[in-house]
Amino acid sequence: MGFFSAVKKLFGQSGVKASSRGGVAPATAESAPSAAPAETAFSGAGDEKLALALRQAEPRLSAWLAVVLDGVDEAGGLLWQRLAFLLRALETPESEARAFVEEFRGWLERMEYRYVEDFRSELQYRLALALDLEDEEDERDRLFARLQDGLARTRARFGQGLAELLSGHSALDQGFWDEMEELFIMADMGAETSLALVRRLKERCRERGVTSPEDLMPVLEEEVEAVFRTPKRIAVTSPPEVILMVGVNGVGKTTTIAKLACRARMQGKKVLIAAADTFRAAAVEQLEVWAQRTGADFHSRGMGADPAAVAYEAMDIALKGGHDVVFIDTAGRLHTKSNLMDELRKIRSVVARKLPGAPHRTILVIDATTGQNALQQTKIFKDNSGVNEIILTKLDGTAKGGVALAVASQFELPITFIGLGEKMEDLRPFDPRAFARALLGREN
Ligand SMILES: Nc1nc2c(ncn2[C@@H]2O[C@H](COP(=O)(O)OP(=O)(O)OP(=O)(O)O)[C@@H](O)[C@H]2O)c(=O)[nH]1
Ligand SMILES: [Mg+2]
Q1: Residue 366 domain flag
Q2: 93: phi > 0 → left, psi -120 to 50 → alpha, else beta; which?
Q3: What's the total number of domains in the chain?
Q4: Which domain holds residue 116?
Q5: How far, in Å, from the CA of 169 to the mean position of ligand 1?
Q6: What is the pLDDT of residue 111?
Q7: Does residue 429 belong to any structural domain of this protein?
């Protein structure tokens, strides 16, 4: 069901009109029909009140969700009832509504989530998919707020320093630029990136005739955003898409796989997770639990097995089983030990033998709290294991978020997701513009 038809279902055909923004707005009370088709499904006084509140709400998923979640703090009977009600009000067939609620309920149990605030955006995401509604500005606002929270410490170091720098100078002279470069370096952008960024800023300011610090902000924002610009890649056309996860010890590879697997499952994909981290028994078990929670298939050979053999078998399973995506979790290994890089190469080559072109994505997971160390990790993994994508985790606990800029600009690798906390919800698609604004302390 598309957005417009969803709105029509809730408000009745003639009760909806296009707004100037190209969206939809509820019609005035006079023109609204007295009985929307959905109303026949309502029962009881409470339901009628809810139905009315829904019809009066702005016709957007987040607004409807706000209505049905009003007074609901945690998972339980009331939540299931309200959700079923919303789905029915949007004319979702009874069996589909029930399946949606059951599936979401099962997911919450597996994830051990209880409070609405822990799963709200997951719920909205699922509803948007189930109802075929488009992404909303409101959701983006919430993501931005989360990003700002996550980057609070980085911004405290960088954004405030920047504000002081801008207000403390009246002209863009050499002293100003030197201080700016120092500020970038302090925010873990690295000396090279900082120098390059200052050079580009100077040039842009000259081109545009910007001469005072107070006019610098928009230019700075554009340039920071530009650092993250990378060419689009061609998507894999014949499944399975094979994703190899690499990175040093404890950066968040396994939890990131769980979250990505979860997203893929929600998009209806058949997912296989392979435990090619065979160093620790706990690592294999941890991954199996995640696989069960997300409804992904799982392949392992237990601790001590040959990681390349696990990957090889996983490819067989996926090719026979018609899986859409295969995630290969690898051990947290020290990048200084070259034999470990050899092992990654071996995994790559057996996977490629099974499916030419695989692994299609080799994702390097980097812990942002490591600061400048991230640069060295990126270099070694890129040179030795064909990394073509980066996920930056733990941006929430660090003042070193500027390292994202250093990594992106020095290696020209796309950052696709960022981790802003330990919860599944906290892995977010990376949005260069939002990141630049959050880093610089600008409003969304
Ligand atoms: N604060 C915060 N913690 C995170 C984030 N991502 C992962 N973690 C935590 O980091 C710890 C390590 O995560 P794992 O997924 O086990 O890391 P790994 O890279 O698989 O570790 P090894 O398998 O031991 O190499 C866990 O406690 C995670 O909850 C994040 O974005 N923010
Ligand atoms: Mg792991």
Answers
A1: no
A2: beta
A3: 1
A4: 3-135
A5: 42
A6: 77
A7: no
